[in-house]
Amino acid sequence: MKKVVAQQNRRRLVTWRYAVLLTLVLLVALGFGLERSRRMPLIYVIPQGYVGPVVALFDQPDGVEPVRTQDGLEVRVPENGVVKIRGNPRLGHSQAFPKSTVVFQVEKHDGSRTVLAEAIDPWQDYDKDDKPHWKVGIRDAQGSLRTIAISGQKGGFVFDDFPAADRSTEMIFWHESCRDRVFGPQSEAWLSGQKTLEELHVPPCGEFVVGTFDHIRQWPEWMFLRGKGKQEKMGVRNPTYDSVDELVDEANARVNRKKAEGIR
Fold first, then answer.
1. Which residues contact 257 (CB under 8 A, 6 or more apart)?
2. pTM (2 d.p.)
3. What are the angstrom distances between the C-alpha of 119 and each of 45, 54, 219?
4. Beta strands of 171-256 (E only): which ranges?
5. Fewest Cβ atoms closer than 10 Å to its Cβ: which of 5, 121, 180, 238?
6. How far, in Å, CA of 106 to CA of 104, rounded?
7. How far apart are alpha carbons 22 and 28 in whole angstroms?
8. CA 191 to CA 169: how far, in whole Å?
9. pLDDT in tens, 41-73
10. CA distance 256 to 48
11. How far apart are the first and last CA of the chain?
């Protein structure tokens, strides 16, 4: 009799352990699913008429909290183009933007919005004979990519092969990380490999440029982020900023100079 009771107790213990384990697995799966459901695209709301570079700095104590909407997490681009964001949200998708984690919207004076397409930097594609060809592209917010072959002309601009209709259409250019600019006084320590970006407390950041290709093609170098104009026109490697304040001061000066020289 004691043996039977002991066996029953062991079965109950095993059953209880499996029940606890199953509950934990379900809770983890539920939490993971909830976390994923909370992830949404980051939406940059750009005021109508803004042209020029935009820098988003994350994990900023004096930054703004993104506004959660049904379409995504919204942050507004200020006049100087430097967006300071509190925290660094993990991004996902929404019903409106199922294939984009970052969206760019121009807000017009009447409150309506237009989603901007994004110019994609050159990449190599291979044909059926396995021969490489350079291409650029234009991607819309729904993830559709239209490819454009590069003619290979020397001394041109990277998007010179855009069709005429696209050259005069406002879109986003050079959307990429800007952590390699290293916002800290020890930038050479990172460039030489002595320290990591985390060790230097370099904030996560992203950059992009708003404008039409035909317009951007004529911009003076000061309209670009530091080094960007030289990089695109002469192949010179980007220099770095020494601090966020230096970046902001340059951005504020750019606002005044744009007004003075009528660039819009």
1. 222, 263
2. 0.80
3. 18, 15, 17
4. 171-177, 205-211
5. 5
6. 7
7. 10
8. 37
9. 999 999 999 999 999 999 999 999 999 999 999
10. 18
11. 92
